[in-house]
Amino acid sequence: MHAISSDFVECIASLSSRLLTLSCCVAAFAAAALGTSDLLAQPKGFNYDEAKVPKFDLPDPLQANDGSRVAKADQWPSRRAELLKLFEQHVYGRSPGRPEKMSFRVVSTKDDALDGSAVRQEIDILLAGDPSGPQMRMLLYRPARAGKHPAFLGLNFSGNH
Predict the structure, then answer these.
(1) How many structural domains does the chain have?
(2) Is residue 143 included in any domain, yes or no?
(3) pTM for this predicted structure
C-alpha cells in the first residue's frame, strides 16, 4: 500500500469539492432538460442562428471594477479576484467548500497500469467521514515516475472503466 501525502489529500479535497459542485449543476440541468423543473433562466429551445444572438459586450479583463487599468503584474491578483467573483455570480455559482469531516479511503491500487507507465487507484471520497454516509468513488491514474506530467480531469457518470 502507498502512503497518501497531505498535499495529495488537499489536492483531492479541492478537486472533490469542485466535482461535487459540478455534479449538482449537471443534475439540476438534467432535471430541467427532462421538464421536471424550471431551473434555467433561458427560454426553452435552442438557437443555432448566430444572426439571432443579441449584441452584448464582454467586460475588459484588464479594466478593474473601479475603472482603473491593470498595467503591472502586481495589479493582476486583485483583478483576477474580481473576475473569479464575476464567474461565481454569473456562471458557476459558489463552491460549497470542503466538507468538515471528509476523508479518503484507497479501495484498490494497481502499480503497473497502462503497461507500467501509471499507477491506477480507486479512492472512495467519504463526504461525512463515515462509510455509511454520502460518498463517491474516484478513479485516479497517476504517473509511475516522479516529475512534472500533464494532467486532465474527465467526468464519468457511468462507473469506472
Answers:
(1) 1
(2) no
(3) 0.47
Residues 122, 104 contacting (CB under 8 angstroms)? no
Minimal CA–CA distance to 104: which of 35, 13, 1, 2?
A: 13
Check residue 140 and give left, alpha or beta (phi > 0: left; psi -120 to 50: alpha).
beta
- b/e for 9-48, b at 16 or more Cβ within 10 A? eeebbeebbebbbeeeeeeeeeeeeeeeeeeeeeeeeeee
Q: How far apart are CA 53 and CA 101, in angstroms?
A: 46
User: Phi first, then psi: what are they for 119, rounded to 5°?
Assistant: -110, 130
For the record, the C-alpha cell of 98 comes out as 470542503
Residue 35 domain flag: no
86 within a domain of the structure (yes/no) = yes
How, if at all, do strands 135-143 and 103-112 pair? unpaired
The answer as to whether 85 is a domain residue is yes
Summary mean pLDDT of the chain? 81
Q: What is the Cα–Cα distance from 85 to 82, expressed in whole angstroms?
A: 5
Kindly report, residue by residue over 92-115, the tens digit of the pLDDT: 898 888 899 999 999 999 999 999
* Domain that includes residue 72, residue range: 61-98
